[in-house]
Target: Histidine--tRNA ligase
Amino acid sequence: MITAELLCIMVEAARQLDCISSQKWEIRIGHRNLIVAAARYMGFGDLNSQNKILNVLYAISTSNKMLRREQRIERLRVGTEMSFNQANSLLNVLEGDEYSLEALIARTQCLMNCRDDSVRELVQSAIDVLTNVSLLLESFVGADCMAAHVLFDGTLCYRPQTYSTGITFQLQVLLPHKGSLRPIILGAGGRYDTLLEDERHAQDPIPPNPLCAVGCGLSLDTVAQLCCTNTPVRMIELIEHCNEKKIETLLVVHGDDEVLVRIGGADLGKMSIDEEHCNEKKIESLLVVHGDDEVLVRIGGADLGKMSIDEVLSKFENQTGKATSAVESFTHLHGISQSPARHASATATAANLNVRYAVAEKPAVNARKRNEAHIRSCLQKAIAVMTPQTVIEVIVTDLPTDAVRLLTTLIDRNCSMDELSGSFATATKQFNKFKKEFVRIQEAMEPFFQPKNNSPIVLFSRQTSNGYYKLLL
Model:
């Protein structure tokens, strides 16, 4: 009951605070016993191994990045001395595509059927607690709120040495960041009866009834920062010099939350900043105005060339009141063909590949041609989803597939140079005999992690006949 009441407070706080309710927010609920039971089921019966698993899952749960499944598996494998199959099986039991309580119960059915009585007891106790909390919480907040914002996550773990009794929960918002979502944790907590019992001194009075302690924390600093940064984007602040009548017409016609206007003296070199801003704020139209009557138009990420201000206004006026998007309106009115042949060629080709070799000896010309033909063949599907303007950096290496998988799991495409060096240091510890190869790859990769360089990177291994590669986006 206490846990359900605390969760109700969290839900109400998320509803009442505009900085939270205006974003995508969620409350994740898990149970420590599920993780311990799954660890025992996988053969990790000793307390030390279980604590390692709990600590790794705690680090994953509190990460400010949306980790891919491969990255989560690799962290489990490195941090707990699990094999790849064991880590994969553990996640298969604890997580899935659905986060309802029914889906979690269905996934943990294999634990309920285990011959080990201790595993069955742990799972049953966890399911009973989660079911009771779910029923109470639903009666307070309603079924719609439960379905939209409450997730039951078997991998959730928060401060396992403190909240060591059972249920844990976490409130977070998902903010758009560089084309993906970044989780920001606002509050978390759980039950800690066991901690109080362990820390009770001999001279302390013995409670007449078993303790039931549930705690949670709300990060007011994070909430305050979120409130400060969650202000509406006013595109007018980017205007340096303009004809007021023209700008008023632009803003009225298309709405000030969609049009990004840059006036006077701007050049194409500065568009990358505006483009990143557009991606983060989901702004569809980017207009860069030069001189008195010249506008560079970029709609939906596609450059449509130069137009006059009156021509731009007519496009927006024609779009107003119609069910077409700005992309369809501009491409149709600007004379861009919508034929299947046009769309078929509007993707990257093999010419977009920029192949570099991070190997001990550069191959001869004939060998290089064979390698690059093989690379083009292997990367056909990856190339097909890229835009024609994208330059795909391919780094050829002699690392084995396990080392390539580990390295790409550790590296985040948007990381800093220090974080990149840390990733290579971690990979070198695991595969020390390939230290020189890692150094070559790092030297080849560092230029692509400079500011404003967001080219996709492909790490391609020559050690396999089928052309093993991993993509960093």
